[in-house]
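JOB MANIFEST
job_type = single_chain_structure
chain_count = 1
residues = 215
[input]
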Amino acid sequence: MTRNQPHDPHTAHTHPHPDAAEGAEGTEEVLAEVGPRLRRIRRERGATLAGLSEATGISVSTLSRLESGHRKPSLELLLPIARAHQVPLDELVGAPPVGDPRVRAKPITRRGRTMVPLTRQPGGLQAYKIVIPELTEVPEQRTHEGYEWLYVLSGKLRLLLADHDVVLGTGEAAEFDTRLPHWFGPTGDGGVEFLSLFGPQGERMHVRAKPTSRK
């Protein structure tokens, strides 16, 4: 059965983006680490709260609350502390270096599928590494706007595309217009690990589209 879904990329193999709640949670984690880092840096330099207070103009009680996590750090407080310790502001916050090319991906697991986002920006072309240990759903073709590219890293991937029933092996790739009814997942004989690129346009990859008899 085919369902028309104008925007939701194939619910059975949806590629969700980290939502705002996850971003807020990450910010809170970073802020929670600032206090212990301030205390460590101060002690490494042999400074006392009283001495740091004199150097920064920030009261001892405020500095103490910052280090214990009872006062939320702000730029107004962190800048004079960074100057007093003669360290970059990033060192106090624990931010990754500017221009750090690493993608800090957070795996997402839904319906037995583990998806690791490989792109950082929402919208446009999106890349995912997807691991499915076993077949846990009945294949159901769906449609939506977009274009998809698949590349199998290990195992076998079954792709149902309109009237085609294709099995892709390790090192094989496929591309298709997602407005065509489609579904992909394990063959039922072990798990599969593959890369998925989804977006409105992009580079074409090698296509294997030799149909086999549908089981």
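[summary]
Helices lie at 20-32, 34-44, 49-56, 60-68, 75-85, 89-93.
The first helix runs from residue 20 to 32.
exit_status = 0
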